[in-house]
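Please check this:
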Amino acid sequence: MIGITGASGKPFTPNLIHSPRAQAIRQAGDADGHQRGTAVDGAVRANAVPTRAGPNEAHGSESVRADGRAQHAHDLHERKEVAQLQARDRQVRAHEAAHKAAGGRYTGAVSYDYSVGPDGRRYVTGGEVSIDASAVPGDPQSTIDKMEVVVRAALAPAQPSTQDRAVAARARQIAARARLDLMSERMAPNDQNGERPPPLLMPDKMTHQMVGRNLDIVG
């Protein structure tokens, strides 16, 4: 900054700065400015918006949070239900496919029962496959061979159902009867009269023909 010097070469400062009138003017200006600052500050404080939420706002926020928690729980429940349906679908399809593969030409078409999940998709929840478990007329050996296939088909799934085991048990009964008939045929030439003895018969409940009997109904 450039200063003003007097005749003596020393810095010269106008006397107006130190005059009583100048000081009075300065003090009056400072007081007026202080009052205006105070008034403005008071107006700002008076017009300030409270930051504390009212009871209605607090209740609304809590309601939103509660709704969010409820929706989250609902979504979790739906996802769990869908996962269970997907697992059931895979289980039933694998179960019936095992019957079908082991039974071969003696099995019929697979039929399924469906349920609609919360996602709008259909899932397999039950199924069945029919199997021809009847004896071969006049051919005990073919009957035995056929019943062996029926038993394998009935017990093919990893976890056979009660109905599966019942079909296997009946097939074994039919096979046992066929073995008796086969033994009778083989003993016939030794008959002194040259006549073939009648085939051995099992009780009626043991000779039940299971034509088209379902292997199982899962579900």
